[in-house]
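Appendix B. Chain record.
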Amino acid sequence: MVKGDAEGGPLVLVTGATGYVGGRLLGELAGRRVRLRCLARRPAALVGRVGPGVEVVGGDVRDWCSLERALRGVEAAYYLVHRMAGSRDYAQEDREAAECFGAVAREAGVRRIVYLGGLGDESDPRLSAHLRSRHEVGRILRGSGVETIEFRASMVIGAGSLSFELLRALTERLPVMVCPRWLATPTQPIAVADVVAYLVAALALPAGPSRVFEVGTPEVTTYRDLIREYARQRGLRRWLVTVPVLTPRLSAAWLAVVTPARYEVGRHLIEGLRNPMVVRDPAAREVFSIRPMGVAEAIGRALAELGGGAGVAAADGVGGR
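Structure tokens predicted for this chain:
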């Protein structure tokens, strides 16, 4: 268990606080007995988004010196960064960042790292480069010598999540969708409220070895069914026509609904749809009291937050989520 001092609770570092999940996590932690510190490459981006008691440190997860400042005195650190949105060589950069973060965290005496990665079968030779990178980061952090709690999730359903915004854009803008057959790939997404609940609960786990927890909705679904459920709740009539493969022309048509700044991220996310992303290990249900909501409720909550879902807005950064 992460323990703090008598004055204000443990000091907790959040990286990726300007992203979608990180921002939500900050809101949840703010009401708890912890002291918060954020590491951000652009501290100005957090102005107005953090409370007066939150310390913001400028720096980068690949910079040893800034990590030493950020991790000094920290009991637990959330690692919620992913460089896919800003680099074509994101796998190498993520590898270097995880190695640097783990090494500095060990030297600083950090007791626990909490990391959010992606579902997917590591033994599958067809696993996308994006998911392989996510798994590699988890292995590096677990191998750092600091106890690491890794959560693996599929699509995060919530207003502003990039993967959900991609689904929303496709459904809102394309009355007829020519779809590859791998849209029938099984998946278990998770509501943003549930993934944040798991991240918060990780602070209270008893000290022990590093662990990996797979999390998702109670039911296995498909991306085709997610589109249909979104359309049903929005009162939209949509026709899905299946084709054997995703041709370059079709891929370009799909990505045309994503803003240009998100093209690379959207491409990697679509490539990842080929891989089954389901919960195979029930450990999370056994260890945590959290019972994730179902797909229909998760989509309903996201739409309610969007005010009914009218229009398609640009997504906030979500670290590949």
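Further analysis of this model is presented in Appendix C.
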